[in-house]
């Protein structure tokens, strides 16, 4: 499975290609799915470009994207969008339009309560386990671990040379914490493409998009999420057995 991560916490200041509004997210999702993406991850944003978990903001983004594509659509629950864990869970309880899944960063305070709020509403949980954090240890202790949709093994090491080794170490920790849950492995910035290649070689789910990298394989700026998806698809098909 190839997920497209359309925007993340980035803004137009990072790249004019980053989709911000519901209409822009819908257009980007449509093109990315046509290019080969199987799943969509978005960060709903306020008109001023801030990530938000407010019901009206989440609903506008989800409705627009779902009108454009017929694949699962997920959102973030990152602490930067709502720092107070109790408030984050309350926001989820007040959503009027529900995503298919939502990511929960297990190293963040309140992860258990946020995941429980999602599960109570029938929303799949993507358990974000970041390298360089205690996320794997916290997730291993969680009674909710067997109930998550999948684990997002998120490699925060942005070094092209070092990220694959960091990814392998993270995978060892993740499989020890949740040996029977599907894993989606991805990197960021300079590590995005090397980690995607590793995920493909290991036959793991992965993702690409402007949240993870603004650059194509050859170092040129990406003009769109769809361009990144096409490049990822070509890379996977070019590998032995691809």
Report on this structure:
- The chain has 242 residues and is of the alpha/beta class.
- It has a single domain (2-238), classed as Aldolase class I (TIM Barrel, Alpha-Beta Barrel), CATH 3.20.20.70.
- The protein contains eight helices and eight strands, in the order E-H-E-H-E-H-E-H-E-H-E-H-E-H-E-H.
- The chain has helices at 22-35, 55-68, 85-93, 111-120, 135-140, 163-177, 192-201, 225-238; strands at residues 2-5, 39-42, 73-76, 101-105, 124-130, 150-154, 183-186, 205-208.
- The protein has an eight-stranded parallel barrel, surrounded by six helices.
- Helix 2 links the parallel strand 2 (39-42) and strand 3.
- Helix 1 runs parallel beside helix 2 and helix 3 (85-93) packs parallel to helix 4.
- The longest helix is centred in the last third of the chain and has 15 residues, at 163-177.
- The two termini are 13 Å apart.
- 50% of the residues are buried.
- Strand count: 8
Low-confidence region ranges? none
Q: Overall pLDDT, averaged?
A: 95
Fraction of helical residues: 25-40%
What name is given to the CATH topology?
A: TIM Barrel
| Overall number of structural domains | 1
- Which structural category do the helix and sheet elements fall into? alpha/beta
Shape verdict: globular
- In the CATH classification, which architecture applies? Alpha-Beta Barrel
Order of helices and strands: EHEHEHEHEHEHEHEH
Question: What's the name of the CATH homologous superfamily?
Answer: Aldolase class I
The Rg value, from CA coordinates, equals: 17 Å
Question: Largest sheet at a glance?
Answer: 8 strands, parallel, barrel
| Measured distance between first and last alpha carbons | 13 Å
CATH class: Alpha Beta
Number of helices: 8
Which band does the percent of strand residues land in? Answer: 15-25%
- Give the strand line-up of the largest sheet: 1-2-3-4-5-6-7-8
């Amino acid at each position: 499975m190839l997920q497209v991560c359309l925007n993340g916490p980035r803004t137009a200041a990072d790249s004019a290609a980053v989709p911000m509004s519901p209409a822009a997210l819908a257009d980007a999702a449509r093109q990315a799915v046509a290019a080969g993406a199987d799943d969509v991850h978005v960060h709903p944003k306020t008109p001023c470009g801030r990530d938000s978990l407010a019901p009206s903001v989440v609903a506008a983004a989800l409705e627009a994207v779902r009108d454009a594509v017929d694949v699962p659509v997920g959102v973030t629950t990152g602490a930067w969008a709502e720092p107070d864990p109790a408030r984050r869970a309350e926001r989820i309880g007040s959503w009027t339009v529900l995503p298919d899944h939502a990511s929960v960063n297990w190293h963040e305070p309140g992860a258990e309560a946020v995941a429980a709020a999602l599960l109570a509403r029938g929303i799949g949980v993507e358990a974000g386990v970041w390298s360089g954090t205690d996320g794997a240890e916290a997730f291993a202790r969680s009674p909710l671990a067997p109930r998550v949709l999948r684990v997002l093994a998120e490699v925060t090491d942005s070094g092209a040379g070092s990220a694959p080794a960091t990814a392998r170490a993270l995978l060892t920790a993740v499989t020890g914490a949740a040996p029977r849950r599907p894993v989606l492995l991805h990197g960021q910035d300079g590590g995005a493409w090397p980690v995607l290649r590793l995920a493909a070689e290991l036959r793991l789910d992965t993702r690409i998009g402007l949240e993870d990298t603004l650059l194509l394989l050859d170092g040129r700026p990406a003009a769109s999420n769809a361009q990144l998806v096409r490049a990822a698809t070509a890379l996977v098909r070019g590998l032995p057995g691809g």
